[in-house]
Amino acid sequence: MVRISIPTLPLTPPLPPSALTKLPLKEAAAYLNTFLVKGKGKTVILSGAGVSVDSGIRAYRGKEGHYSNPNYKPILYHELVEETPRGEMFRKRYWARSFLGYPPVRDARPNPTHVYVAALQLLGLAPNLITQNVDNLHPKARSLLLESIPRNGGRRPHTVPPIVELHGTLAKVHCLHAKHEQPRDEYQAQLAKMNPVWEEMALEAERTGVRPRTNPDGDVELSGVDFSSFTVPPCTICEGEGRKERVVKPNVVFFGETLNPKVKDESLDLIANASQLLVLGTSLATYSAYRLVKQAVEEEKPVLMITTGPTRADKLDKVDKMDKRAGDVLRAYLDELVKTNTGPEVEAIRRCLDMGIVTPPPEVEGPRAEG
Which part of the chain is the Deacetylase sirtuin-type domain (predicted)? Predict the structure, then answer.
C-alpha cells in the first residue's frame, strides 16, 4: 500500500533575511517594477493560499511552514472513490463536512491582493495566472475589474487569458462515471433537500456566525458525529439515463489524486512560453506547484517570489525572494503606476484598488460540533 501524506516543508534552520527582504516597501515596489518591465508582458504569475487569507480562507501552512492543522485528516482520493460500503461511508463523511464548509468559501469576496493580481493581468504586465487556490476568488476579482471598464460600442476593449486553476475549483462538481458536470450550487441544493437536519445546522451557523473550523478545501472539522444518516445524491444526469452512479466529487484535486492532464500540460506550457515567473503567497509545499518553479529555473528564466515564511524553493539557485506580504508590495507598485499612466484600464484599476474586502480567518473559532 502506498502511504499518502499531506505535503509539508522539511524542518530546516531559517535562512537569514535576503537583501530583497530588507528593502523598504517603496524600493521593493520599484524592484517589482523593474522585474515586470523586463518581462515584456510575458510574465506568468503563480499564486497560492496566502493570497486568500484576507478573504477569510485559512492557509494550509502557518508562519513556520508547518501544516497549520496537524490533526486534520482529509479524505484521500482512493477513499472517496472506493466502491465498497467503506467507500460509501467516506463519501458520506466528506459531503456532510463539505456541505457545512462550502458556504463560507462560496460567499467569500476577493481581498485587495486578488484585485492587485487582476490589475497586473488586465494591464498586460502578467496576463497569465496559474493558481493553486480552489476558492474562485481570482476569477471574481478579474470580473470586478473588467466590469469597471467602460464599454466601447457595447464591447469591452480588453481580453484576459483564462486562469489556470492548477488544483481545480470548488464551484463545480462532476460524476466519475461519465464526467457529467454541474455547478456546485445546484448540488448543494440537492444536499440540503435530502438532509434537512444538516440544512438546519448550516442555517444556524449562518445566523450565529459560529462555524466549525473550515479548511482551504471547504472541508470542516467535526468530531463525535455519526455520518451514516447523511444522504449523498447520485449524479442526476446518470440517474435520468437509468444508471445509478453515486460517486460525485468536486472539481478539485484530492490528496493522492493526480492532476488533470490537460491542466498539467497547460501549466507547463505557460512556463515554457513565459519570459519569467512571479510567485505570490505560497510555500510551494505541493510538488505540482514547486515543479513549475523548478522548470523556470532549469530553463534559466528569472523567478521572483513575494511571500512570507519558508518555502520549498528557498534553496534553489537563481530564485529571488522577498519575505514580505505580496499584497503590500503590489499595492505600493500599483499606487505609483496609476499616478503616471492613463487609459480605460488604468482608470478602472484606480477605481477598484480599494474594493477588496479584508476579513481574515478568526484566531479563535466556535467549538467543534459534537453529537
Answer: 18-340
- For residue 330, the surrounding DSSP H or E stretch is helix 326-340
Alpha-carbon dihedral of residues 118, 213, 286, 329, nearest 10 degrees? 40
Domains in the chain (CATH in brackets) are 17-57+110-167+258-366 (3.40.50.1220), 69-107+170-252 (3.30.1600)
What does the pLDDT look like over 335-354, one tens digit per residue? 999 999 988 889 889 999 99
Residue 67 CB: number of other CB atoms within 10 A? 16
Going by pLDDT thresholds of 50, 70 and 90, the confidence category of residue 257 is very high
Task: Write the burial class of residue 82 (CB in 10 Å: 0-12 exposed, 13-18 middle, 19+ buried).
Answer: middle
CA dihedral 151, 330, 307, 303 (to 10 degrees): 80
Cell of residue 240, nine digits? 435520468
Distance (Å, whole) CA 4 – CA 77 = 10
Catalytic residues: 167
Dihedral of alpha carbons 323, 325, 330, 336, sign: negative
pLDDT band at residue 364 using 50, 70 and 90 as cut-offs: very low
- The residues pairing with 44 across neighbouring beta strands, listed in sequence order, are 128, 277
Cα–Cα distance, 345 to 351 (Å, whole number): 10
Round to whole Å and give the CA distance between 52 and 303. Answer: 22
Q: Rounded to whole angstroms, how far apart are CA atoms 178 and 70?
A: 36
Q: How many CB atoms lie within 10 A of CB 33?
A: 15
Q: How far apart (Å, rounded) are the C-alpha atoms in residues 340 and 53? A: 31
